[in-house]
Specification:
mainly alpha, di-copper center containing domain from catechol oxidase, 3-stranded antiparallel β-sheet, 3-stranded mixed β-sheet, 13 helices, 8% strand, identical protein binding, oxidoreductase, metal-binding, monooxygenase, membrane
Length: 529
């Protein structure tokens, strides 16, 4: 059934989105440092004739970085993407894409004016047909070459500063595996030297926004290659799980009967080949992963080092994490204490929020627990469990955003590790996205989570939110006005009482005539404050 669905979907190919645009992976674009492809709708660069966008110089953040990376000018990812391109499409309004040919997340329609919010659902709540369709879509992505994007197989220096382009084709699923690898790989310093304390997607403030953007792009590519515009990523709610409930042939692949480190042959994922898992080999060769197949997916859930990850995360762990009020703190890396981000990522204890990199909690715990391809950062996206795991991590991030309603300024603007400041562009995405653009509620990006939906209450909250935010900004003035109002009321009350007392002492000859009872009922009293 899955093979039939995959074969059927092969006839509906549409462009994919990912990293280096194919139309810009050439000598001319690299030497000119310009990536402003034409939009098919009018043939003009960035759809400028249709007011979709224009080719502009890239505006890089000048905010200072943290001390974790003591080099400059040695890594192609510094000031992304300026080593490769310093002019790209800047899209207007709700348009998006490397040529402004798409709609921003959360919008659709011919002119990208229609708002939409789609729902991500628990994988165990899907019907059999929905679940089989999801598995078929995954397998389809693994077998369709990306039409719009290619990957770099060499550094800019190895490309002779652009005169010798080094790129290759890749399938849609592996494109995202490669992007995750590229963002987290070590810096190559020449000879056999590398710098390991660098990661543009982990161990710092950008961890949650980066993976939020990553999932949105992955979700959209599945929608495009399948023609299923309503597709959303399911999530795996692993709270209080006693084992890997999705590790069955019905879902993400069961255990091989004779080799516990491999997947069951009954699973479609048993035939998948992994890429970008041999980081030490790449480092010794001073080379990038070129997406060569490196063997089958490895997974042996539960046979991990119990001293590092004694159990899967509990509901109590998640609730404690959500109670933390600071998004980021201190050094803003894996040593940060009382940081919501660091605790959710798993470098801080989920019961104290004190940093302890020797233990793995929450997000990290799941990766370690899988004891295989998922457990090595650079190649972890090879295992399709990665997607449903990170969808649930993103839902926890969403719960924190809804509970604490942080302003954008809560996300650090400066002194974060390289690539993680608010205005830094995320590595290695083209089109360009800044970290701060994804530090916002998911509904503003066009999606929600089934278990977070409370329709009536949510609509009321949505109505009140802008007013509450305004009130929060002017609360001091409101309190002052209330105090002054109370004083004025007290003074007026005293004056009225004094007047009444004086009138009681007035002689009966000069008192006004009494009002008839029926006229009294028609009198209306108004007070103006």
């Amino acid at each position: 059934m899955l093979l039939f669905a995959t074969g059927f979907l092969l006839v509906n190919l549409q462009p994919s989105t990912g990293q280096f645009p194919r139309v810009c992976a050439n000598t001319q674009s690299l030497l000119s440092k310009e990536c402003c492809p034409p939009w098919d709708g009018d043939g003009s660069p960035c759809g400028e004739l249709s007011n979709r966008g224009s080719c502009q110089n890239i505006l890089l953040s000048q905010a200072p970085l943290g001390p974790q990376f003591p080099f400059s000018g040695v890594d192609d990812r510094e000031d992304w993407p300026s080593v490769f391109y310093n002019r790209t499409c800047r899209c207007e309004g709700n348009f998006m894409g490397f040529n402004c040919g798409e709609c921003k997340f959360g919008f659709s329609g011919l002119n990208c004016t229609e708002r939409q919010v789609k729902t991500r659902r628990n994988i165990f709540q899907l019907t059999i047909n929905e679940k089989n369709k999801f598995l078929a879509y995954l397998n389809l992505a693994k077998n369709i070459p990306s039409q719009d994007y290619v990957i770099a197989t060499g550094t800019y220096t190895q490309m002779e500063n652009g005169s010798n382009p080094m790129f290759r084709d890749i399938n849609v699923y592996d494109l995202f595996v490669w992007m995750h690898y590229y963002a987290s790989r070590d810096t190559l310093l020449g000879g056999s030297n590398v710098w390991r304390d660098i990661d543009f997607a982990h161990e710092a403030p950008g961890f949650l926004p980066w993976h939020r953007a990553f999932l949105l792009m992955w979700e959209r590519q599945i929608q495009k290659i399948t023609g299923d515009e309503n597709f959303t990523i399911p999530y795996w709610d692993w709270r209080d799980a006693e084992d890997c409930g999705v590790c069955t042939d019905e879902y993400m692949g069961g255990r091989h009967p004779t080799n516990p480190n491999l997947l069951s042959l009954a699973s479609i994922f048993s035939s998948w080949q992994v890429i970008c898992t041999r980081s030490e080999e790449y480092n010794s060769q001073q080379a990038l992963c070129n997406a060569t197949s490196e063997g089958p997916i490895r997974r042996n859930p539960g046979s991990n080092d119990k001293s590092r990850t004694p159990r899967l995360p509990s509901s109590a762990d998640v609730e404690f994490c959500l109670s933390l009020t600071q998004y980021e703190s201190g050094s803003m890396d894996k040593m940060a204490n009382y940081s919501f981000r660091n605790t959710l990522e798993g470098f801080a204890d989920p019961q104290t929020a004190i940093s302890n990199p020797s233990q793995s909690g929450l997000h990290n715990a799941l990766h370690i627990y899988m004891n295989g391809s998922m457990s090595q950062v650079q190649g972890s996206a090879n295992d399709p469990i990665f997607v449903i795991h990170h969808a649930f991590v993103d839902s926890i991030f969403e719960r924190w955003l809804r509970r604490h309603r942080p302003m954008l300024e809560v996300y650090p603007a400066a002194n974060a590790p390289i690539g993680h400041n608010r205005e830094n562009y995320m590595v290695p995405f083209i089109p360009l996205y800044r970290n701060g653009e994804f530090f916002k509620p998911s509904r503003e990006l066009g999606y929600d989570y089934e278990y977070l939906q409370e329709p009536a209450l949510q609509s009321f909250q949505d109505f009140l939110t802008p007013y509450l935010q305004q009130a929060r900004q002017i609360w001091a003035w409101l309190v002052g006005a209330a105090v002054i109002g109370g004083i004025i009321t007290a003074v007026l009350t005293a004056l009225i009482k004094a007047c009444r007392k004086k009138k009681r002492g007035t002689s009966s000859e000069i008192q006004p005539l009494l009002i008839e009872s029926e006229d009294y009922n028609n009198i209306t009293y108004q007070s103006n404050f």
